[in-house]
Amino acid sequence: MNNTIKRVGVIGLGTMGKPIAENLLKKGYTVAAYDVREEPLNELRARGAVGCSSPGEVAQESEAIISIVLDRAQTESVVLGPRGVIESIKPQTLLIVGSTLGPEPVLKIAAALAAKDVEVIDAPMSGGYVAARQGTLSLMIGADPKTLERGMPVLSAIAGEMTVAGGVGAGQTAKLAHNLVFALNVFSLLEGLSLGIAGGVDPAVLKQIFSQGTANSAVLQLWSELGPRWKNMLKRTDPEAPVPNIRKDLHLILDLARELGVPLYQGTQASLIGDAGVATGHADALT
Which pTM value belongs to this model? Predict the structure, then answer.
């Protein structure tokens, strides 16, 4: 068997998936791509990717597949549903799950694909669209060592840092722990700005003070670029609308905590604040 992977599929061409596909093209991979929207597909076709009409067609064209869709429902649909990956995937193909789902759905997918002689790399991603665009994503990996060795060149094409947390599912657990700390940082910064601004301190001065003290954080350093996007994800949403990522991840975190019997007092409060849609009031008007 030739272990060199040359053809990579990308399913989900949103904030993360599209720049991931572009970086794979730049690194010389043949890329097959799928999204429910035609616009990103057409943009990637113009760059040399193969545009596919279904996840199953991506599987036919690929030796490794990166799934980076929004949530569990979408992931199970593109992998296990009609015209999904499972219907067409070839033996020895790798499936890399980049979405943050929690461990249980990834283990379910891995079990279903094992019957097809397909191995899964659990690789949730951190760094947002900035790192995705730059090819410097941080990956929290759960995988069998031999499987990871085969997939490492593909992962190296899109990531700057990779940390192995354990077997399949462990990457998801580590990512949720990471995102709990991240979300609390976002809420803390919003509240700190709110307090200082209410007391008459210029927000730019507050940020300088935070950055020079022990309140400094990666969230603060990225605030000028990503702060508006994070606040937008904390706005009120219609009941039928998809839950934005920060809130979705907090729900997953609390589900896992309940399963493990771990009380998360701050995480519970942050989730309640996020769902109430009030956190965007703690905001710097200049960002």
Answer: 0.93
